[in-house]
Design a protein that fits this description.
The complex is a heterodimer.
Chain A: H1 3-33, H2 43-76, H3 85-107, H4 125-155, H5 163-194, H6 203-231, H7 233-236, H8 244-257, H9 274-286, H10 288-308, H11 316-319, H12 326-348, H13 354-357, H14 362-391, H15 398-424, H16 440-443, H17 446-476, H18 496-502, H19 505-529
Helix pairs in contact in A: 1-2, 1-3, 1-14, 1-17, 2-3, 2-4, 2-14, 3-4, 4-5, 5-6, 5-8, 5-19, 6-14, 8-10, 8-19, 12-14, 12-15, 14-15, 14-17, 15-17
Chain B: H1 5-30, E1 58-62, E2 67-75, E3 78-80, E4 83-87, E5 91-98, E6 103-107, E7 113-116, E8 122-127, E9 132-138, E10 150-156
Parallel strand pairs in B: 2-5, 4-10
Antiparallel strand pairs in B: 1-2, 2-3, 5-8, 6-7, 6-9, 9-10
Classes of the chains: A mainly alpha, B alpha+beta.
Chain lengths: ~550, ~160
Amino acid sequence: MTRADKLAIANIGVAVGAFSVAASMALMQALSRANLDLPFRSASMYYLSVTAHGVLMGLVFTTFFIMALGYVVATRALQRPLPWLGAAWAGFWIAVAGTALTAGAILSGRASVLYTFYPPLKAHPTFYIGATLLVVGSWVWCAVMIRALIEWRREHPGAAIPLAMFGMMATVIVWLLATPGVAIEMLFQLIPWSLGWVPTVDPVLARTLFWWFGHPLVYFWILPAYVLWYTVVPQRAGGKLFSDPLARVVFVMFILLSTPVGLHHQFMDPGIPAGWKAFHTFNTLWILYPSFITAFTVIASLEVAGRMRGGKGLFGWIKTLPWGDPMVASAICAMLLFAVGGFGGAINASFGMNAIVHNTSWIPGHFHTTVGSATALTFMGAAYWLVPRLTGRTLELRPMARVQPWLWFIGMLCFSIPTHITGLLGMPRRVYDPSYGGDAVAAGWKWLTDVSAVGGLVLFASAVFFALVMLFTVLVGKKGEPEPILFAEPLEPAPAALVAKLDRLGLWTIIAIILIIAAYAWPLYSHLMMARFGAPGASPF
Amino acid sequence: MKVDLYERIWMWAATVIIAVFITMTGISAVAFGIRPPSHVETIDPTAAMADPRFAQPGVKLDSAAKHATVTIVAMTFVWLPDTIRVPAGWPVTFRLTSLDVTHGFEVARTNVNTMVEPGYVSQLTYTFSKPDTFLVVCHEYCGVGHHTMGAHVIVEPAP
C-alpha cells in the first residue's frame, strides 16, 4: 500500500466510524418519533442525538469520505503520486482533531444546537472551534488536489483532464466557494460570541452566512456521487460512459450555480426583502438542469452496459446488469431514491409552495433521499469497491454486502415517504414528542411516524451490515494482489477543442465568484447598514 | 457538440419544465401576491415587552375594516398568548417577535409559516375561511422544551 493509499484508508476509517456512531443515534430518534417508551429516553438525550447524528453524518462522514475519494482519483485517474503528502497528512490530523473537539462538545451535552447551530442558541466554544478546524483540514485537502492537477497539467500540456478528476475538481471549487460563508460566521460571529468577547449576535446575518455555505454544501455531497455514477458505475457494470462532454457541462453548471442560491433556505426569515429571495429562487430552479442531464446520461450509460452484456429489448438490459456487484446495486438504488429527492427539492425551492413545507418533517424526509441516499448509499457502495482495492484484502461477508443496498432502499422509502406526508400535515421537524398534549391534528400523524420508525429499524439493520462488512474486510479479508482501480471509457472520444474549453476551470471559478457577488453583496451590505439589535442568546438544553 | 437525439429532446424538455416553473413562480408572485413573509423591521429583543409594539400581546379587532391584528411574543417554550381567537373571513395580520432564541411559527394545515427571530419583527397576513380549531407549533428547534411549544388558533364566526 502506498502512503497516499494509507491516507485514503485513514480517511475512510474516520468516515465509517462517524457513520456507525451516527447510525446508532438515528435508531433512537426513529423510535422516539414514534413515541415509544424506551429506557434512557429523554428530551435532552433526543436533541443531543439529533445534533450528533446531523454533524457526524452530514459533516464528518461525508467530508472524510470525499477527501479519501479525492486522493484515490488524484493518484489513479492522473496516474501519478500524490504531491504534498506531508501536508495532506497534516490536514487529515487537523480535521480529526476538529472532529474530536466538536464530537466531545456534543456528546457531553454542551452543544445540543443541531447541525445548523443557528444562534442565538449558544453551544460550548469547542463545538465551533472544532467545526472550524474540520473545515481548515478540508482546505488543506483542496490545496493538495489543486496542486496535483497543476503538476499533472505541466506534465501533460494540452491533454484533457480525466473526467473523474474534472468532477473532483468541481467538488473542490464548490467547497472553496461555499466555505468562506461559514468561516466568516464562525470567526466573526460565533467563536467570539461563545467565548464572551462580544455580548450579542445577529441571528438573521448568521443564517444568511450559514446558507451561503449550507446550500453548496449539498453539492459538495452530491458531486462526488456524480463522479462515481459517471466514471465508475459504467465501468463496474461492464459498459461505457454515454457522453463525456455533457458530463463536463454538468460539473461546470454546478460550479456556476451552487452558491448564489442560499436565500431559498430563508424564505420564511424576517429582515430579508422578498426581491432577493426571488432572485435566488430563479438561480435555484436552473440548478435542476444539470441533474436532469445526469439522470439521462447515467441511465443511458447503464443501458449501454446492459446491452453490452447481452440484454435485448426495451427493458431486457435492466436484467443483465450485474446486480450482484454491491457497488452497482448501491448506486442504482441511490439514483432511484434521488429521483424522489429531486422532485421534493423543486417544491422546497419554490417561492410560493415553500410555506407549506418549511421546517416541517417534509424537510428531513427530503434530505434523507438526497444526502442520506444519493450520497450516503453511493459512498457505501464505493467503499465496497475501494477498500479491497486499497488494502489488497478480499471483500468479506459478501451476502451481507449484497443485501445491504436493498435494505437501505426499502428502509429509506419506508422512513422517508411517511416523513414527507406528516410534513404536509403540519408536523414540525426535530421534535422529541410530536403529540402536543393529545391534540387531534397531532394524533393524525401517529400512524405515519410509526411506519417511519419501522423504516428507521430497517435502515439501522442496513447500517450494521455495512459496518460489519467493512470491519471484517479490514480485519480478516485475505491478502492478495489488489485489483486495479479503473474508470469508464466514453462511448465516443470527446471532441478535443470542446473539452479544452470546458476544462478552463479558472475561468468558471471567476464567473462563479461574480455570480456570488451579484447574489450576496447588496443584500449583505444593506443588511449591515440597517439599524439592528443583537441577541445575547441562551443555552436552553 | 454532437448530442444524441433522445438526449437533445430530454434537454429541451428539461429547459421547458424549468422555464415553466420560473414563469409560474413569477406570475404567482406578481399577479397573485404569493410571496414568503419578508417583513423588514427590527426591535431590541432585551426590551421587546417594554416596547409599545409588543407590550400587550393578543388579538385586536378592527370592526370597521373587518381586520384582525394578532401580536405574539415567543420565548422558550411558550407562545404569548397561546389561545388566539380570530373571526372567520377577516384578514388576520400576525406580528411576532422573540425574546430569546430563534423560534418558528406555523399554523398546521395552513400557509401560515414564519421564522421568529430575536431582534426582528415577523409579519404576515392570512384569512381563515371558516370556523375551525388549528394547532400552532414551534418549528424551529429552540431547546429542550421545543416540542411542548404549542398553541391554538380558534376561528369563530365573524361578529
